[in-house]
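Researcher: Please translate sequence to structure tokens.
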Amino acid sequence: MPKGTVVIDAERCKGCGLCIAACPQHVLAFSGMLNKSGYNAAHMENPDACVGCGFCALTCPDIAIEVYREKTPVKEA
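Model: Translation complete:
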């Protein structure tokens, strides 16, 4: 499986939780820390489980999430 990384801009996050609900691998959770606007932003709770699917970024209404996926080497036949 590919390895992914999620980068969340905590200052843009409004803590709606849509990304947390959308993640099939249960990677994201609320951080428990408030941003400057007083919202409980999301963060990667279980980074080793991330496959870089991008569902979290697609559901984020605030465009606060970027998803990166490691390149996997192509096997030659």
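Researcher: Any highlights?
Model: Residues 8 and 65 are 5 Å apart (CA to CA).
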